[in-house]
Design a protein that fits this description.
The protein is an alpha+beta fold and 307 residues long. The protein is built from 4 helices and 16 strands. The strands form 2 sheets. An 8-stranded antiparallel β-sheet has the order 4-3-2-1-5-6-7-8, with no helix packed on it. An 8-stranded antiparallel barrel has the order 9-10-11-12-13-14-15-16. The radius of gyration is 39 Å and the shape is rod-shaped.
Length: 307
């Protein structure tokens, strides 16, 4: 009987030692798991139960508060999945972060998150050029994005009219009318001189409408989330009524900034430089030289809507 009690004591001692030698996983819900920790990866923790031939169990680090190895080493985890290694010492302990997100890593992560979201956005953009209304152009465009939104082909269409000329004509005619009214009380000779001067200063606008169309090829480069730099060729052909109804071809190299605003709206600011060449239909007009190439520049602002 005494010999049997010694055997039981030895068995209990081994069980106790085995229990003490186990690793532990402390979950955030308050549960403690005695186990053998197999691996700690970037986002998960893998362990096996103490039962022989048990299966490998993997949990997210977000579910784990800390782990304790049989050696006494303790690893703490935040919900941002940044583990801290707690090293026990004789009188104190130190906490050293194992993973710290740098500014550059944060930029990379933010850009990746944006690119994942951008994939779901439409590749079709309908654009309106509001500032051009003052310059005598009613312009709309359609742009199709390709190659994971790194390239775009845009087709614009403009209805042109002499908006500045109409304003100048209206202003000059009003001034002439006021001058004639004021001079009606003076002598006939004075009145005739005023009429001649007024008629001489009258401004006539270019009447009618014209059309301009063309094509843009834009190459986009990501600067940061929702912001891109673009550049590429821009071609236009048509009649500009604000410039006296002249017809010709313009070629420019343009660049600018493209910004996404939410899921639907975009805005674009662009600046281009190039040349302008008159149409051959002006060859018989003495005041024009169709062989001459003139410098040309443009500034555009587009308000876009994803379709």
């Amino acid at each position: 009987m005494k010999h049997f009690s010694h055997i039981i004591f030895i068995v209990l001692l081994f069980v106790s030692i085995a229990t003490i030698a186990q690793d532990k996983v402390f979950l955030r819900n308050g549960k403690t798991i005695s186990c053998k920790i197999i691996a700690i990866s970037e986002k998960t923790i893998s362990y096996k139960d103490t039962v022989a031939n048990s299966e490998l169990i993997t949990v997210s680090k977000n579910e784990v508060l800390l782990t304790e190895y049989q050696t006494g080493s303790i690893y703490m985890f935040s919900k941002e999945e940044t583990p801290f290694n707690v090293i026990n010492g004789s009188s104190n302990f130190t906490i050293t972060p194992e993973i710290i997100e740098t500014r550059e890593q944060r930029k990379v992560r933010k850009m990746k998150e944006w690119k994942d979201a951008e994939v779901l956005l439409s590749n079709n953009i309908l654009g309106f050029y509001i500032p051009e209304l003052i310059l005598g152009r009613l312009t709309v465009s359609f742009e199709r994005l390709f190659a994971n939104k790194s390239m775009g082909i845009k087709i614009p269409f403009s209805l042109t009219y002499d908006g500045l000329g109409a304003l100048a004509e209206n202003s000059a005619n009003n001034s002439s009318a006021n001058s004639n009214t004021n001079s009606s009380t003076t002598s006939t000779a004075t009145s005739n001189n005023s009429t001649n001067n007024s008629s001489g200063s009258t401004v006539a606008r270019t009447k009618g409408t014209g059309f301009i169309t063309g094509i843009d090829v834009n190459y986009y480069h990501d600067l940061k989330p929702q912001l891109k730099y673009f550049f590429g060729p821009r071609i236009r052909y048509g009649t500009d009524m604000t410039l006296g109804g002249i017809e010709g071809l313009t070629f420019q190299l343009q660049n600018g900034i493209f910004r996404s605003r939410g899921k639907r709206m975009t805005s674009t600011i662009g600046f281009g430089v190039g040349f302008f060449k008159l149409s051959a239909s002006y060859a018989n007009r003495g005041s024009y030289d169709v062989n001459q190439i003139y410098p040309w520049a443009s500034f555009t602002w587009r308000l876009g809507f994803r379709l």
